[in-house]
Specification:
Strand content: 25-35%
Radius of gyration: 22 Å
Number of helices: 9
Length: 356
């Protein structure tokens, strides 16, 4: 199987030492059949983007192009640096549902903690859809979601009707939440402007329309969200004789941890990855689990003290990449809405107590 027009042009440009701007590259290969452009936004914590990837690598300035050899057909990947430090777009033309892209996703998993994707906060994901409204009516063609309390997935599609528009992103997301599901992907359409597929795991697919809108709105917001996540996770290891940094708080949309049997699901999730080992320090009424990521020796405490919250407290050795991987694993599994630093109440002075 021959490579796509995009892959052929990208590989030829890389070998010539002159890769056009991404928008120009896409425009140069327009034609029929149409080719999708698949993007995965990633956080580089250590090393180089393609350290764990197999293939033939060509570096052109800050950009890297990898040709991957596969029995199903060779393909190329472009590591495109963004304006945000440590944030890259991993770009190809293999459909995200194709087994070859699944191979890319598996390699990303094994690249942790050096290289991690970004699982978007609920509001960041919703903002991707609303941000397009300035260009016209944004319609949802399809939506996939997952039940909050288990891993059952649901896919909903809307047919185009002459008499009315399909739902906008806010309406579709609200319908999913009323059905106690968490939205994972949205296929959006703006008439004569853009056809795009958004994924909460920091990804998007461009199917057609104005690539400039896709780049300036979708790719820019993905990079911003990943950069905020990178900054949140950096520098959180405990230090001797220094105040303990506030833990990372993962907030669920519903109180999912009401009993020991509920919190047992957290223990099961921590036991799943081979890179992690754990020890239960406290079981009931609250949960406290000590976790070690053997990828780099990072250590954490995972706590459930409220029915709608998981907290992760980094230890004295805690890399940003390992913290990101652990927090996002729990966020993804339990369909959480938000990841942020827990607010710590200011200490009350003796004077305030006496005068109050």
């Amino acid at each position: 199987m021959s490579m796509s027009r995009f892959d052929e042009a990208l590989w030829a440009a890389a070998n010539s030492g002159d890769i056009p701007a991404l928008g120009d590259l896409v425009k140069n290969v327009e034609g029929k059949p149409a080719e999708a452009i698949v993007v995965e936004t990633v956080i580089l914590n250590e090393g180089s983007i393609f350290d764990r990837f197999a293939g033939q690598l060509v570096n052109v300035g800050p950009r890297s192009v990898l040709q991957v050899f596969d029995d199903r057909g060779n393909f190329t990947l472009l590591a495109e640096p963004t304006t945000r430090e440590g944030i890259y777009h991993l770009i190809g033309s293999v459909p995200s549902s194709d087994g070859r892209w699944k191979r890319v996703e598996r390699t990303l998993v094994t690249s942790s903690p050096d290289l991690t994707p970004c699982f978007l906060n609920h509001d960041d994901f919703a903002d991707l859809g609303t941000s397009l409204s300035e260009f016209g009516a944004v319609e949802v063609r399809a939506m996939s979601a997952r039940h909050r309390l288990h891993t059952k997935s649901v896919t909903t599609t809307w047919q185009k009707l002459e008499s009315q528009l399909r739902p906008d992103p806010q309406t579709a997301i609200l319908e999913a939440e009323e059905a106690e599901t968490s939205v994972r992907t949205l296929r959006l359409h703006i008439s004569e402007v853009l056809d795009v597929h958004l994924r909460r795991l920091s990804g998007a697919t461009y199917y057609g329309g104005d690539f400039g809108v896709f780049s300036s709105i979708i790719l820019a917001r993905l990079a911003d969200a990943a950069f905020r996540r990178r900054n949140l996770m950096h520098g959180r290891a405990r230090q001797v004789a220094q105040p303990t940094p506030a833990p990372i708080q993962i907030t669920l949309p519903v109180p999912a941890f009401k009993s020991a049997s509920d919190t047992a699901r957290v223990i099961e999730e921590l036991a799943a990855p081979q890179r992690l080992s754990h020890a239960v320090l406290h079981r009931n009424p609250y949960l406290q689990v000590s976790v070690i990521d053997h990828s780099d020796g990072s250590n954490f405490d995972v706590l459930v003290t409220r029915p709608d919250t998981i907290e992760v407290q980094p230890g004295f050795r805690a890399s940003a990449g390992a913290l990101t991987a652990l927090v996002q694993q729990l966020t993804d599994r339990f369909a959480a809405e938000d990841i942020r630093e827990r607010k710590v109440a200011a200490p009350v002075s003796l004077y305030s107590l006496m005068s109050g």
